[in-house]
Amino acid sequence: MIDSDTKTLDAVVVGTGMAGMYMLYRLRNKGLNVIAVEAGTGVGGAWYWNRYPGCRCDVPSIEYSYSFSKELEQEWDWTEAMVGQPELEKYLNHVADRFDLRKDIKFSTRVTAASYHEDNGRWAVETDQGDKYDTNYCVMATGCLTIPNYPDIKNADAFKGEVYHTATWPKEEVDFTGKRVAVIGCGSSGVQTIPVIASKAKELIAFQRSPVYTFPAKNAPMKPEFLAQAKKDYPEIREKQRNCASGIAGYSGPKKPKVEGAPKKRKASRKILGLTAEQRQAELEEFGIGAIPNYVDAFFNEEANGIVREMFDQELKRIVKDPQKADALSPKDYPLHCKRPVIDTNYYDVFNEDHVSIVDLRKGGIEELTATGLRTANAEYEFDILVYATGFDAMTGGMTAIDIRGKGGESIKDKWADGPTAYLGLQVCGFPNLFTITGPGSPSILSNVIVSIEYHCEWIDQTISYLRDNNIKAMEAEQSAADEWAIHVNDAAQGTMYVAPTCNSWYLGSNIEGKKRMFMPYLGGVDKYDEKCREVVANGYEGFSLTS
Ligand code: N01
């Protein structure tokens, strides 16, 4: 029974990051009655919430942009090779205005519950603002990195100073001038924010549990002639993005004509095994620390990984002058490529400054927060501002934070208690007509995520057309297909450093206590994944059950 306050819709899109915005655009264009619900006051998702100082994209902006509108591609001018959060947020606001998306977005509203009604194949969706929607389709555009992880530290509320999390940074500027600042966490967010905060603060202490492998970003202002050429070359760039594993075309400008007799530009080797110690040293000196993540054999081979780690350590010791700090920053406990390699601007250099110190929590963890700071097993520290850069309940957090109930009232939390399975990362068995954009089991964050997002939105759009055209009431992933796909996703990661026994990462869910260890994203590549999805459709939505 639907009460009179309930709004009847064709589709509800949850979240308006890059995925939700494009999904809304597509579904509305096909004439569906659709609403997008957004917890923030603006669009942008990750690029709305993560507004911490130094936040920046690590994919070239030419490639980290929507491809669906040729006009948009031509009219938007990026100012840097890899732009920061403010420019990305501006771009996404421009997209929202240009395509008039805001009129169908309910801002400052969080979806709290969604339950499936088996009798009519529809979803009942509720929000924290008291909205009720009765809808045919639910599209979860809740993102892979959405729910902040607050570590479980004793007396967490004891600290009396200002407290921030990089993933929920306030819009108002935080003034670090003359302040003593503590940052807990040294992953991508910590690495980006530490040098920027340190440039203002009187003192900065980084509390680090796992050092990262980080490489120079080499960001630079956008050259107008490069941008102009990229705009001309967009059709080829997009084509290449969709037909390679990473979703990154690696665009570097127009191909230069070959000059007869010109010396060949030297490149670092593809593999480290097979090079003599002298050759490795020569490569390190010629190409620098930035060449290290490109030795492909280090992805799979422990010996190769060991060699590149030694090279990394050697460079680290050269850059960071204080041997104790260099030792603390050395990621000796786990292989390169287990976690997402970070790219940075001045991260190691900032530790050469006297007012920046590092606390190696491997030698004694945080025991508790105090009114004035925190205490580790070894010492007590005082500071004015505490910044958590402790990451996310990744891949699943955005979904499990909502009380989603499918057939028989089963909750998504229970369904995923033994690890998240979603057929192709698009649908969960027992949750008909609910789609997940970049869900677990899809390339998602192991690819240029906007390429994967656009692909998913288009697939869902076309699938909904198919369901409507064929009077299909409910579409649901079959458990056997989801299980088989989960095995394939797991197999694709085997033999890589992502699943090495010493590896703990958010890809595996092992940054969250109690979360089942399981490699969640699909490593097979964007191209192979697209091929599989197309095959599934060509075979009449093989692996999905369709009920009229
Ligand atoms: O989060 P993380 P993030 N005590 O999980 C530490 C994307 N991103 O926000 O490794 C002490 O990587 C934790 O330690 P450990 C990108 O995909 C992209 O930095 O669990 N420390 C780790 O050091 C990235 O991979 C961009 O041992 C604790 C840190 O907190 C993803 O987001 C920029 C702790 C968390 O690192 C997540 O990055 C930013 C505790 N109790 C983010 N608990 C770019 O585009 C956790 N930690 C460049």
User: Could you give the distance between the termini?
Assistant: 21 Å
Q: Shape from CA axes?
A: globular
Q: What is the C-alpha radius of gyration, as a whole number of Å?
A: 24 Å
Return the structural class.
alpha/beta
Q: Mean pLDDT, nearest integer?
A: 96
CATH architecture classification name of the largest domain: 3-Layer(bba) Sandwich
Write down the oligomeric state. Answer: single chain
The CATH class of the largest domain, by name, is: Alpha Beta
Bound molecules: 3-acetylpyridine adenine dinucleotide
Helix content: 25-40%
Write out the CATH superfamily name of the largest domain. Answer: FAD/NAD(P)-binding domain
Q: Tally the beta strands.
A: 20
- The tally of domains stands at 2
- What fraction strand? 15-25%
Q: According to CATH, what is the topology of the largest domain?
A: FAD/NAD(P)-binding domain
Number of helices: 15
